[in-house]
Amino acid sequence: MLGKTTTLSIRTPEGVHFEIPIASPFSRCLALAVDVAIVIALTILLIQVINLFGVMFSEVPVLGKVFSDFSTGAMIVLQFTVSIGYGMSTEWLWSGRTLGKRIMRLRVIDERGLSLSLKQVIIRNLFRFLDMLPSTFYLLGGISCALTKRCQRLGDIAAGTLVVREVDSTPPVLEEFVRAEKNSFATLPHLEARLRQRTSPEEARLVLDAVTRRNDLTPSARLELFSRLADHFRSIAEFPEEITIGLSDEQYVRNVAATLFHRASV
Amino acid sequence: MAETGAGSQPRITLAVARQKRISRTTPPLPPQPPSPILQPVILDVEKFILRERPFWDELAELLRLQENQPDRRPPLEEAKRFYYLYQRTSSDLVKLKTFAGEAETTRFLERLVARSYSRLHEDGGEKVPFRPWRWLTRTFPATFRRHWIAFALSCGTFWIGAAFGAGALQLDYKSKADFIPPQFSHLNEKPSKRVEREEKQDFDAFQGRHAFSAQLMTHNTKVTIMTMVTGFLWGIFTFILLFYNGTLIGVVMFDYLSDGQGVFLTAWLLPHGSFELPAIFIGGQAGLVIARTMFGWGTNLRLRERFARIRGDLLTLIGGAALLLIWAGIIESFLSQYHDPRFYPWKIGLGAVQLTSLILYLTLGGRRPRHPREAL
Known about the structure:
- The complex is a heterodimer of chains A (about 270) and B (about 375).
- Chain A is mainly alpha-helical.
- Helix content of chain A is about 60%, strand content about 10%.
- Chain A contains 13 helices and 4 strands.
- In chain A, a hairpin with a 5-residue loop joins strand 1 and strand 2.
- The interface between A and B is large, with 79 and 84 residues.
């Protein structure tokens, strides 16, 4: 793996900078496995449908004879069409997502962060024939993924595309995180004001991150983080003992967050 | 009352920095009362989200609408609103990153801005509606001619391969079996025997013919696609594939011609081959266009930019090849595999007409009439 990039950084003409996480080869493999299973299932289903028609027409004198041979040809063509058309149609209709990619929460996008064009969809899927060599082992595609900075198979390079991870796009309800059940600091507005005055935006950001993501931490890490944060904020703005007595470090930091973020200052 | 004593950390906002810059060139100002700008700039995230959320939701809804219908062209008012919402959300993202940095909401806004950005800045060419008739009569033949050298190389390599196959068979007839791949093992049969058997069969002998044609059709489509995509490996495998397939044709042609079955061979191959072989050559042409792009001769552009330039041409070439293959498949399925000698003149005639039409179409199609002055 040569100097892998894990995110696609984009700066828009409006001056906004954002990052999109690039999918890992492992998640791409899983999505591919799902898609292959779907293609096989779809092919079997179509073959069964054609066979069913074959049975229905078998008793008809001329049509039965025509159909028995025609259906074999149709099966070969259908199998080929499904294997080549599945990726193209799903990626185009679902904005860069096949069913496997949907399950694995992946999406194909243009490498400049733009949405996929039909040209790109067709080219990246045609290049699958090359990527899957030798036979169907995806060795060339795998090597390309391993050697390229942004984990692109040959089809991605030719089409100018990338596979990215979909991130959760639901905003959290901040109220429950930020608002302490009972902010005892609120009884001392002058000390709250001092705390706001002495807290830098970076420190405020740290407090908010800690509070909103506290459930993701292991118990020991959570205790240590809030202990250090509480010590830090005690050092920059001291509250009287009668207010802080019996207050856990985490509750202390939540009070700090409530003090900092429940005041419109912009 | 906020304490502003000596112990407090100085906060430098943009306004303060601006004041400092001004103070270098202008006389120092008398002490000013503390400005509200000097307060720590921390956003009331909850209030901010409550105020902005309806705009984000509206943008998300418009995005969902657009993503569900990729071909939909939004009305002007909707497009204007979309642009406004995008700008507003972008501004919110910048604000949140600068003043609050709350991770979850920032991620949500980044995602929203990324999706909107991709819709707003997508390739303008995509919005030009596809016009099949124009594509067929102008775009495809013009694109074909633009890359005629690649076509000539593709075609030449194939026929060199054919000459090699024929030459090899002339030198050592027993090597025929080594050239014929297993799926076409029936071609190992002596041509005159096959012709005798085939010509005696009834017209309605359907067994196996459609299946065989389907097999050939998918095989040829795969060959065409492979000759194109292997161009990515600097064209080496495109040349190899063209040469190898040419060898097969050369062997079969030599075998039938040397056995005195020229008429059968022409009536068998010409109706579909007149479209099928050019389709493979066009696949090879596309492959060599890719190979040239890989080498990047005569340009300083990066690989991704070079590919962006040829993508349209590649798709046009492969689209044209696909059309030719579909027609060839139909002809092969319903006509080529029936070997009644009464139909030979018709089959050969059809093949000749098809080939001539294709040559005329590809060489003359889509040419704009020259201006009378230019003609002089």
